[in-house]
Amino acid sequence: IRDFPPEERKPLQSIQSLVRRGIYTGIGWYESDKLQGYAFLADIHGPAVLLDYFAVCPDGRGQGAGSRLLAEMAQGYAPRGILIEAEDPDSAPDKELAQKRLRFYDRCGARDSGWKGLIFDVWYRLFCLGGNLSGEETREASLQIYQAMLPPEFFPQKVAYFPVK
Questions:
Q1: 8 A C-beta contact, residue 131 and residue 79
Q2: Mean pLDDT, residues 25-32
Q3: How far apart are CA 52 and CA 85, in angstroms?
Q4: In what order do the strands lie in the sheet with 48-56?
Q5: CB atoms < 10 A from the CB of 114, how many?
Q6: Does the pTM of the predicted model rise above 0.70?
Q7: How far apart are the C-alpha atoms of 4 and 9, rounded to whole Å?
Q8: CA–CA gap between residue 65 and residue 15 (Å, rounded)
Q9: Are strands 48-56 and 81-87 parallel, antiparallel or unpaired?
Q10: pLDDT at 74
Q11: Cβ contacts of 74-79, under 8 Å, gap ≥ 24
């Protein structure tokens, strides 16, 4: 709740259902028994996993923890890619923060897929870290993951991708 705005949060029941189905997992990073950051990922055992949530705890922000955690995660999921959605600055309420996130993922080596998605009424830019997926393969992998995560009646209404102009 602290790290994500309401429009980006999944209901707890949805998360629990995905975990029970075996396609969603949470990861916590600790140093000296103190939580440094966390991630939630959707994984249907395809060419990539979807980084659904990623945050560094407030005490560790601005100190390189996010870059280290993302690099460790990319190594752990290699040779597959990690799909990353970052809020599109063109429609973000805080354009400066959205730009900062895009620069962060770029510095970490994420590749812009050339696609942006409208996911549950929020615009995101789609990136891939690691793996060897083209922009189109990145979009297709993301669509497959969302199709597995969502009820059939929600998928076509809540997930759409468009080329970045």
A1: yes
A2: 92
A3: 8
A4: 24-31, 34-42, 48-56, 81-87, 122-129, 111-119, 159-163
A5: 16
A6: yes
A7: 7
A8: 25
A9: parallel
A10: 94
A11: 74/109, 74/129, 74/130, 77/49, 77/130, 78/130, 78/131, 79/130, 79/131, 79/132
Exposure class string for 34-72: b at 16+ Cβ within 10 A, else e: eebbbbbbbbbebbbbbbbebbbbeebeeeebbebbbee
Q: What is the identity of the amino acid at 7? A: E
Instruction: Mark out the alpha helices in the chain (DSSP H runs).
Output: 12-20, 65-77, 95-107, 135-149, 155-158
Overall residue count recorded for the chain in this entry: 165
Q: How confident is the model at residue 8 (pLDDT cuts 50, 70, 90)?
A: confident
- Collapsing DSSP states into helix, strand and coil, what is residue 48? strand
CA-closest candidate to residue 105, choices 79, 125, 119, 122: 125
Q: What is the pLDDT of residues 44-65, one digit of tens each?
A: 999 999 999 999 998 878 888 8
Tens of pLDDT, residue by residue over 65-85, are 899 999 999 999 999 999 999
Evaluate whether 37 touches 69 at the Cβ level (below 8 Å). yes
Q: Which residue has the tokens 């959605």?
A: 85
